[in-house]
Every structure is written in structure tokens, then in C-alpha cells.
Amino acid sequence: MCVKKKIAKLLVGVICLGTVVSFTGCSSASADKKSADGSDLSNTLVYAGEADESINPIVSKSELSGIIFSGLMKYDAKGKPILDLAESYTYDEGSMTYNFKLRKGVKWHDGKPFTAQDVVFTYDKLTKDTTLSASVLSNYKDIASVTAADDNTVAITLSQFNAAMLDNFTIGIVPKHLLDGQDLTTASFNQAPVGTGRYKFVEWDKTGGTITLEKNSDYYGKVPNIDRVVYKTVAVENTKALMLESGEADLAWLNANYAEKFRGKDGYQNVDFTTADYRAVSVDFRTDFWIKNKDSVGVLNYAIDKDAVVKSVLNNEGSTAYSPIQLNAFGGNTAADIYKYDLNKFAQEMQALGWTKGADGIYERNGEKFHFTIQVRDYEEERIDIANIVSKQLKEAGVDMEIVLVTKFDWKAGYNGFLSGYAVEFDPDALYSQFTTDGSANTMKYSNPVVDDLLTQARHEKDANVRKDLYGQFEMAFSQQPASVLIAYLDGNYVGISGLKGLSTERVLGHHAVGVMWNIEDWTLSK
Asked: How many CB atoms lie within 10 A of CB 15?
């Protein structure tokens, strides 16, 4: 099976290389500034992005959602919520009500007027639609009511104080006139989105794998300098690097080793961001193995040389991980860094837990081998490399972590976990939906009453210093009974052509370095 996968991978590489050679032999898009259909590309940004399936801020988080849609609030360079569709707001502590005054004259990309009814519709979907399945729903459970006094005034009343509510108001507003009565998860709108943001959707060519946007000349804020964005939906990591080399792309997020090949190369620039993006072995607590052995997750940390992963896979463009919020302003409690790479300590702890090595060198307990499966997407080289190193290290220590390559994660197939990626780049309340027992993003069904209590307290605490202390306590509780084995944080290594200016590294980026386009209206392009 492994040999077949290697052969298939080599064939894909040959095909991709052949395509690149053929393309460059004719002349690249950057060189002649014309696309295949003859349109001018001189002020079109071609971005080699992710393999998106939908663009809807409620049901999916993507780079494009952030520039097509806009929320009541948006994040500034420091990751703090500031006004966006709202021109002002007040908060009444007695009634726990936010009163928003909306910008006047804002239009949807189809020309229809944006009104308070669109805001009410969006938040009603988030709080009242029992058929909606979305990872963000837990963020809005403290909303009691949303009402519109007129077309430009919205009142949002809470059932209890929520420290992260202004952050949650950054979610993109969706149009009532196009989505009323529809299932948001399956609506055709998700492949032809209409927002109020800086760029508007033009076309999604599924065959060619491109999404075309053009700048919104009626945008209420600063209109972008770059006329068009062509977003290439690329899955395979090395393809992005090949596209940059051939002139088929102007910007791409690459893994550290691919990005390194462009450093100092004529015509290119490396732009390195700090991200909150970490990789971990997340275990599925719904599966029989972890139901019986959840006490043995944390001990695996002792058997993994995380520094070796950072050095080899990440080319030192990252750091070892011990907490899901260690890079967050509210996190970084070093007392929670309780596991060091120590094979002797690992053996001692395994013995204390009742595990003994079998004749094959693999630990056993109650007649069962310490063997579990994790799924890894077959096109993500960085995750495959991390999984392979971790698997090898664990095997040498006596644990059999079997890697299963999949094209798409399958949560119903019975795998014992997956090589995950998460990020908490803004308010740490994002932990609530992921790690509380009934959290809307808790796909692996992690449950820890201490964590539930701490994250609930932190969500409703007004004092920032007390909140920081609570999150520090969370880090300790999480380390002692983890949902996953954290491996490493990644830097966000972007590569662009030298004629692309204005990218700001001031913002901490999210999962898969999402958020790079936060200030795209300030970018300029020359090619």
C-alpha cells in the first residue's frame, strides 16, 4: 500500500512538473500580463489558496469570507474588535444590551440595501435555527434577543455578560433577501456569495479550480487598490510552490521547507508571520480505545521529541507546543509545560498506569495493545511528515500509532483521531466551543468538568486580570487531562512576487495562516 502511494505521488509530481515546463515554455502570466482569455492581469492578484468548498462566514472560516463579507465589528492590526458595519455602539450594563447604529447607504454586492433586518436575520440564524450545524454556535448562546428599531438600529440583549461578545460580533452578516427560508449549510449561495465587503464574487470555475473576485467600488471604507483577486483552490502543497515558480501565482502560504527555497531568490519575497496555528495528535473520545484509555493521552508527550519535529519538518520556523493558547495574550502559563521529552520518565509513567511491554515491544494493558489509528489528509505534506516522525518515535518507545492517509477527514469511519490543526488567535473564549463538553466545535467529544468550569467562568468574567488567571488554570487542567498531544506551533511562511507591496505582519494569523488579507485594501501590485 505504501509503495503504491509513493508511486502515485511521484506520478502526480511528474504531471505537475510537466505542466509547469509546458507553461513556462510559452511564457508566464506575469511575463505577458495576459490570461488565457486575453484579459489584463497587471492588477490582478493570483493567490494559491486552500481547497474551499463553500464561502459563508456562518458555516465555514476562510480567507475569502473575510474580504467578501463584513460584520458589525472587525479586527484591527492588534486583533482587537473595532467598528465596521456599525458606525457606533453603546452597552447598557443593567439590561446587558448592545445598541448598534449602522452605517447608512451600505449596499450588498447585488445592489440591494443593507439594513438592520439583515443583522437580525443573521443572529436569529445563529441563535434560533435548530437545524443549523456550525462550529461557531456556542459563541452566541448568551444572546437572548436581537431586535431592530428601524433600518439603522439594532439591539442585541444578552442573558448574561460575555467577555468575548465584541469579538463574536465580527462574524460576517449574510443577506436576508437571498437566504431567508434556506438551509445555510446547503444553500447554493455558498458557491456564489453576496456580501458587503471589500471584494465581490464574480465566478467560481470548479473545473479550473479558480474563484474570481473584483473590488467593490461601492465599498463604504477604503476601496482596494488591486482590481481583482483570482483565488486558486489548490490542495497539494508542492503545487503552490510550482505555481509561484512558473508565474501562475503571485502569493501563497507554503510550508517552511518550500518557503525556504525562495529566500533571496530574484523576483520573490518571503513574508513571515506569527501565527497561533498549532499541530497536534487529537484523539477521538467517541472511540472504544480512548473511552478505555483516556488516562494515557498525556503520557505520550514524554515519548515525543518535539524539538526534532520543529527542526526537521518546520525548518525551525516554529516552536514546540504545550498549550492551545501559549501564544495568546491570556495564555502562556509555563507551569503548564509539564511534559519534557524523557523516555525513562515515559517508561515509569506507563508502568504506573498499568501498561507492560509485550514480546513485540508494544505496550499492553488488559489484553489490548497500545495501538490506535489517526487519519491524515494525503495532500498535506507537512502534516504527513509530522505524523511520520511522531509515529516513529512512539513506536520506538512502545506505542503503535498507525497513520491512515485520507483525501477527506471521515468522522464516522471509527479512526481513533487525526493529525489536527487549530488556532486561537483572538480572544481565548474560542476555547469554549472546542473544549467544553457540549461545545459546538468539540468534534472529538472531549469532556473535563474542571475545564468546563474554568472556561465558563472566564467567559463571564469582567476583570481581565482574573480572566488571565482563569485561563492559566485552564492550561494546567488541560495539560493534566489533555484533549490532544500538542506538537508544534507553525510560523506563517508566505511567498509573494517582489512587486506585491503592503502586506502587514503586525496581525497574528490563524489556522493555515488565515487572515493575511486583513489589510488587503492597502496592498499594491506591480508585475
From this structure: 10
